[in-house]
Amino acid sequence: MSEDTPAANRVTFVTIDEGRHGQRLDNFLFTHLKGVPKSRVYRIIRSGEVRVNKGRAKQTTRLASGDVVRIPPIRTSESAAPPAVSEGLAERLRRACVYEDDQLFIFNKPAGLAVHGGSGVSLGLIEALRVMYPDEKEMELVHRLDRDTSGLIMVARRRSFLRKLQRLMQGGQVEKRYWLLCQSFKGKERTLDAPLLKMMNGNERIVRVSREGKPSVTHYRLLERFAQAQLVEATLETGRTHQIRVHSQFGGFPLLGDDKYGIAKGEALLTEIGRRRLCLHARTLVFVHPNTGKRLTVTAPLDDDYEAILTALRSQR
């Protein structure tokens, strides 16, 4: 990529190379403008200060090889020291790697760790990995998980491979299965087909079922029934923000430990058990590896808190 280093006192221009081909404009800027808050990045896109090939562009614009991106004067933390990663976190993440090849890492992300920094979070999974693996210059998140959701997250080691995985996901060829604990799940199987709309409630982002939202489908299957809760597997047909959590709330079986979409009854049950976490875990990924052609199935074990909650629920039967 031919690029001019971002500067606080002048406009800079970046020519996109093959490695960035197909990347969204906002994701490119998050990487290029290190240390600049996301809100600021979105603001300079909306205002037209960022331009692609001399024209205004949206945050969702896909960049192509040869595109020239204009970046306004802006101060970054490029020259600052990288964020500190404690040895404890580094060791935890090394143990959390459940799959690795020359193109891909898959981690069993701990609950409570954001996948990336921003919105008051200085260090997320991807920032920590970039510090731990400084030679991995093209490392990028393939998808997202909520901060309090544990489980499988894919990290591409090459941008060319990132695009291959994203095409698989867009074509519905990556199967994602989650394990959740909820209350009031009836029957053995259910499908929720309800469009979801992202909204702002003050400074808080929330998601609601709305006819104005994007099509969203989640398939649920009962795994185990307890006296006061149920263990359910959810398979995503679409991948919207907070999809499982909102569909579960809408369907009348909210997740245990969900501060945003849960209910007091679930909170009371976790208090009784003496454990506290969002009971949602990205359990399994299934897809055909774009390079090898082999079907890959990866499963992430539950953490100690989730296992302890399950043990307590089983003892109540």
Give your account of this protein's structure:
The protein has helices at residues 25-32, 38-46, 87-96, 125-132, 159-170, 243-251, 264-273, 304-315, and strands spanning 2-3, 12-15, 51-52, 55-56, 68-71, 97-100, 104-109, 140-141, 150-156, 175-182, 189-193, 196-201, 204-209, 217-225, 230-236, 280-288, 295-299. By secondary structure, it is of the alpha+beta class. Strands 6, 7, 8, 9, 10, 11, 14, 15, 16 and 17 form a 10-stranded mixed sheet that branches. A hairpin with a 2-residue loop joins β12 (196-201) and β13 (204-209). The chain starts with a strand and ends with a helix.
Low-confidence stretches: none
Under the CATH scheme, which class of the largest domain?
Alpha Beta
**Radius of gyration over alpha carbons?**
21 Å
Structural domains: how many:
3
What share of the residues lie within helices? 10-25%
**CATH homolog superfamily of the largest domain:** Pseudouridine synthase
DSSP strand count? 17
Count up the helices.
8
The largest pleated sheet is described as: 10 strands, mixed
Find the structural class using helix and strand composition: alpha+beta
Examine the secondary-structure arrangement and name the CATH architecture of the largest domain: 2-Layer Sandwich
Overall pLDDT score = 91
Secondary-structure element order, as H and E?
EEHHEEEHEEHEEHEEEEEEHHEEH
Shape assignment: globular
CATH topology of the largest domain: Pseudouridine synthase
Q: Strand fraction band?
A: 25-35%
